[in-house]
Amino acid sequence: MSAKKILIAAETPVLPIDRGNRKRIWNLMKLLEQNGCDIDFLYLDTYDDADIKETREWIGEDHFYSIKNKKRSFPVFVKRKIRKVMEILHCQIAFKYFSLDERVSPELDDDLKKFFSEHHYDQVWVVCIYNSRVFISVPKGTVKVLETQNVSCVKRQEYEAVGYRNYEFALKKETEAEGLSRADAVIAIQNEEEEFFKSILPDSVKTLTIGENMPVHEPHVSPSKMVLFLGSTYVINKDGLMNFVENVLPILKEKCPEAEVVIAGSICKTIPDSPDYRKMGWVDDLDEIYREARVVINPVRHGAGLNIKMVEALSQAKPIVSVQKGMRGLKGCGASVTDDPEKFAEEITAVIRDDEKAMYMSKRAVEFMNEYEESNSRALKELLEMTV
Fold first, then answer.
1. Three-state DSSP class for residue 282
2. Contact 161, 86 (CB under 8 A)
């Protein structure tokens, strides 16, 4: 297979990697590089507070491009203002769902046509269905690939489940199908979402799963008693963690008083201080904190897509105790999975006190990740061989 020239178009910077969507783009770019691809990055400049300096330096001036995407048509501007007021008042009687191109500047089509007249690619990868308008300007003969990151039509329900009113963007199912159909190929982040996409798409659109490839560590068991949760300020993360603190941690303290619960990541900014756990904040060396942790927990009860932090923990050969929702797309990885607070505390205790159990879970995590990464690599090679 000859080297492919790939354009990745996204409205989020890649660095710093302080949230899951950035980690996802970074991992995909590394995977493409490993397959000999020549990669350009087109930044859709959408948010005023975004800092692209690190991303530009990492990608390199010769491969980094930017197009403004900040203007909105007057009808969209009015619609968004009305929606915002309704969300504040908790009175969503209109504009509850987003339209497909709501986040697209009226000038984007012309800017993209000019860009593609000057740059030529084998494949154009667009990150997130809300940017699928980019495909309208892609020249014929170029393979159009949509990196979905998650199923958009379920996101609103996940936010409503935690009482969050400033909603993330969400589409109706038929609108999502329309956006997906703009692509020649759709990347799902996990198998269950691939099946959903297939159910709403015509056979002409290729659908496949490419998860997260990360360096896989050797099986090991930490001698510590550390129970680690690592996460961002994402509201769904906070909901799950505080549920753990309120309903599982008191049981854990009784069953296993030697356990030390450690919270790491930017989520520490949003949770109160407590003598029951230690907040570490931002961690520069993830390898070090994972190496020290005895067990990684995931109490996050809502969400779509793939929990990339769980893939990260598995690649670090860590035993995991999680709620059911937290291990979506990772069936058979060897984690202990339960939604029952008592059982959750019991499983953490067992991993802390039983070296054999901890080592078994570590070995199973490594076996799973090796199989998982082989599957991802096969799917990527199949995608890179596509022509239209």
1. coil
2. no
Write the pLDDT tens digit of every residue in 250-269.
999 999 999 999 999 999 99
Q: Which of 138, 288, 139 is nearest to 217 (CA)?
A: 288
Residue 2: pLDDT over 80: no
Sheet holding 278-281, edge to edge: 278-281, 260-264, 226-230, 295-298, 320-322, 336-337
pLDDT digits (tens, 9 = 90+) for 361-380: 999 999 999 999 999 999 99
- Cα dist from 64 to 59, 181, 221, 263, whole Å: 6, 27, 42, 35
pLDDT at 86 over 80: no
Bridge-partner residues for 44, per DSSP?
Answer: 67
Q: Where are the domains of the chain?
A: 5-209, 226-371
**Looking at residue 323, what DSSP letter applies?**
-
Is the CATH code 3.40.50.2000 the one for domain 226-371? yes
CATH number attached to the domain at 5-209: 3.40.50.2000
* Contacts of residue 70, Cβ cutoff 8 Å, sequence gap at least 6: 45, 46, 48, 105
State residue 213's pLDDT score: 87
How are the residues of the chain apportioned to helix, strand and coil, as percentages rounded to the nearest 5? Answer: 45, 15, 40
**Sheet order of strands, 185-188 included:** 64-68, 38-45, 5-10, 123-127, 143-147, 185-188, 206-209
Residue 312 pLDDT exceeds 60: yes
Return the pLDDT at 376: 93
Query: For 22-52, what is each residue's pLDDT tens digit?
Result: 989 999 999 999 999 999 999 999 988 889 9
